[in-house]
From TrEMBL:
PANTHER family linked: ADP-HEPTOSE--LPS HEPTOSYLTRANSFERASE 2, TETRAACYLDISACCHARIDE 4'-KINASE-RELATED
Stored Pfam families: Glyco_transf_9
Protein name: Heptosyltransferase
Organism encoding this protein: Acetobacter okinawensis
InterPro entries the record matches: Glyco_trans_9, LPS_LOS_Heptosyltrfase
Keywords: Glycosyltransferase, Transferase
Length: 304
């Protein structure tokens, strides 16, 4: 059984697709799976059971990256192709069953649309695949939790400035959290690159005792560290979805992006939205008090 799985370029969308991919792995445990995705998401699949290879799609002018993908895939006769990009590639490869997601935006949860493609209802939760080395990195980086001293992950970055909750809000947020949990420890998560580091730096400066958990770790190491935290609070981003997939209680912060489509998915996930029309509300309108109240409610639930 050979499966071609074409998933997203963006990290968040790729994370959301792991639920249906994991379902395929469970249904066909001996399958050999090739994953095609963008470079940002490629590390997600490093330790996936049944992985044959990851084809990294690097964007090229005139959509030539699709030609590259076709050249890489055309020698193989696929038993199944799952194409979440809705590309023509799926129809010009030798394949048995095809599941092709049509393009265009539609209302409702993205994870639900993905599940519906394979006839799965409810849609399976996203997941992460870790190895022992990832867990060791997490144990060496994130302090061991103890009663009354949770480690709380903060995610102050996003790939679009409009999604970024003002970084000056994290100090008063932390003050409200530590009024209830005085021994809590913060861990600041952010991705690689200058933009991510610049967004995280004010929060690291405001919380000098925080663990710096960003910039230099692989995706699976980051997922293992998130799984070691009692709570994640952060913007609508790939890291938010990764935290939820890792099983971390997750609070997503939404402004001009749509929680009705991209709210975090998992057993213990919540979100808060800035006041105003969905998809148009400035995230600066989301108050510290609103975020703190939601965070503490989720933390009380999980720490009880």
């Amino acid at each position: 059984m050979r499966i071609l799985f074409i998933t997203a370029t963006r990290l968040g969308d790729a994370v959301l697709s792991t639920g249906i991919l994991n379902t395929l792995i469970q249904q066909w445990p001996d399958a050999r799976i090739t994953v095609a995705c963008g470079p940002v998401a490629a590390g997600l699949f490093s330790h996936m059971p049944g992985l044959e290879r990851v084809l990294v799609m690097r964007k090229r002018p005139y959509d030539l990256h699709w030609l590259d993908l076709w050249k890489a895939c055309v020698p193989t006769r696929w038993d199944m192709t799952v194409d979440l990009r809705g590309s023509v590639i799926s129809f010009v490869l030798r394949s048995g069953r095809r599941f092709v997601m049509r393009g265009g935006r539609r209302p409702g949860r993205r994870v639900g649309h993905l599940g519906a493609l394979l006839g799965l209802s409810p849609a399976p939760h996203p997941t992460v695949w870790l190895n022992d080395a990832d867990r060791l990195t997490a144990a060496q980086t994130i302090p061991a939790p103890s009663p009354g001293a949770p480690v709380i992950a903060l995610g102050p970055t996003a790939n679009w400035h409009g999604k970024v909750w003002p970084t000056e809000n994290y100090l008063p947020l932390w003050q409200q959290i530590t009024a209830d949990y005085p021994h809590a420890r913060a861990a600041i998560f952010y991705g690689p690159g200058t933009q991510e580091a610049e967004l995280a730096q004010p929060v690291l400066h405001a919380l000098p005792d925080a663990v710096d958990a960003g910039g230099r770790f692989s995706l699976t190491q980051t997922a293992a560290m998130l799984a070691s935290c009692a709570l994640y609070i952060g913007n609508d981003s790939g890291l938010m979805h990764l935290a939820a997939a890792a099983g971390t209680p997750t609070l997503g912060l939404f402004g001009p992006s749509r929680a009705s489509e991209y709210a975090p998915t998992g057993a213990l996930t919540r979100w808060v939205e800035a006041p105003g029309p969905e998809g148009q509300a400035p995230i600066a309108g989301l108050s510290v008090e609103c975020v703190a109240n939601a965070a503490l409610a989720l933390l009380h639930q999980t720490q009880a």
